[in-house]
Design a protein that fits this description.
The protein is an alpha/beta fold. Helices cover about 40% and strands about 10% of the residues.
Length: about 400
């Protein structure tokens, strides 16, 4: 395993994190009866495999159903030495500090520990959740009090929000680290990463394999373009070759789920990896330019309105990104998964799919885009290609 200094926390964090949102028994935290011996044994074996590989960072959240309780059983049994684990949990921004403190006390009990090494506010995704977090007497004030008491060692935030919200949170100077989305198919949040580095914050990448493209089930075209690397290995290396990034979350559901990622860790130590990753990235971009046109691939986001400013709150930026990925790399399953979440993702994945909105009604909102007519055709095509039954998020916290 490779370790990096996690910003001003000074923690030596492994470049691969054991994320706790895929191996739990239930997405409902009160469904303890759903925890079977088989499921608990698999979760324990997954954590043990992580520890054996040198993955000392175990990450979970209140919103991950029974995850906290089940991880707590592993820690409470002594199977894993608590003092050798960097334990993280995340709590949603509540209306009052009293509610947040109660949530923290419940998590401490569930995790069978007396401290949380990395405590995060989970879901600073828009102005409302940001203001709720930093309000006087609110969650962040409580978190800082817990830090002074030694019950929480370091304070961070987790976000699915737009870059401007990330920058607002980073610039408060009150967070030690952040969890955010950033990977090859979604690079928008790089300015927030640069600002975090300037302030010596730790940077944790959320879901690079699942939200980063369902890379554990890659289409044939993507497999071909990423040769000789698996797309997951390429994406891991692409992220971790940036020194501004310290760790990637791997939402493991079984012990073998770390195997591909350990290849990436091993390759990071080779001098030729930088050149290989660069060659693959050039190949991916060349394929996109050939399929869609170089000008479109380089500039398709130009002049797009925010989803709040479009008729029906259609999220054009997401829809066009998904269409691009489906057309160029054959990432249809991923595009369908994400497209049909639009409209049901709340502030975690905002905006809507085309639905009943007439593409022609979007014309005025696209007045600043050089591709207005093409975009109108694309959103209509994307809806026909990707539409299925609408889906919802699994997490309890919205």
């Amino acid at each position: 395993m490779l370790y990096r200094r996690y910003g001003r926390t000074e923690l030596p964090i492994p470049v691969i994190t054991c994320g706790g949102m895929r191996y739990q028994a239930s997405w409902k935290s009160d469904e303890v009866d759903e925890i079977t011996d088989e499921n608990q044994a698999n979760l324990a074996a997954t954590i043990q495999r992580a520890v054996d590989l040198g993955i000392t960072h175990i990450e979970t959240a209140r919103g991950y159903g029974t995850s906290e309780i089940q991880i707590g059983r592993v820690l409470g049994s002594g199977q894993v030495d608590r003092d050798k684990i960097i334990l993280q949990t995340k709590l949603p921004p509540t209306d009052t500090g009293e509610e947040w403190l109660k949530c923290f006390e419940e998590s401490i009990e569930r995790l069978q520990t007396d401290r949380i090494d990395l405590l995060a506010v989970h879901g600073i995704n828009n102005s409302e959740t940001f203001q709720k977090t930093i309000a006087p007497g609110g969650p962040l004030d409580v978190a800082e009090q817990l830090k002074r008491q030694g019950r929480a060692k370091h304070i961070g935030f987790s976000t699915h929000g737009p870059t401007d919200i990330l920058l607002d949170a980073v610039k408060t100077g009150r967070f030690d680290y952040m969890n955010l989305h950033w990977y090859w198919i979604f690079q928008d949040n790089w300015p927030a990463i640069i600002e975090a580095r300037r302030r010596d914050m730790g940077v944790f990448i959320i879901s690079p394999c699942d939200k980063g493209g369902k890379l554990y089930e890659p289409p044939a075209k993507l497999l071909e373009l990423c040769q000789p690397l698996h797309p997951m290995v390429f994406n891991d290396c692409w992220c971790l070759l940036r020194g501004e990034v310290q760790t990637l979350s791997i939402g493991a559901s079984r012990p073998t789920d770390f195997d591909e990622h350990m290849e990436a860790v091993e390759r990071l130590g080779r001098a030729e990896t930088i050149g290989l990753v660069h060659q693959i990235e050039q190949r991916l971009n060349a394929s996109a330019a050939e399929t869609l046109g170089a000008d479109w691939w380089a500039n398709w986001q130009t002049g797009l309105p925010p989803w709040q400013a479009t008729p029906g709150q259609v999220n054009l930026r997401v829809i066009l990104m998904l269409w691009n990925l489906a057309k160029v790399f054959g990432m249809i399953d991923y595009a369908k998964m994400r497209y049909n979440l639009l409209g049901n993702g709340g502030h975690w994945f905002p905006g809507a799919r085309l639905g009943e909105t007439n593409p022609a009604d979007l014309a005025n909102a696209l007045g600043r885009s050089p591709y207005r007519d093409r975009i109108l055709d694309i959103v209509a095509e994307a809806h026909e290609m990707l539409k299925a039954e609408e889906t919802k998020r699994l997490q309890e916290d919205g």
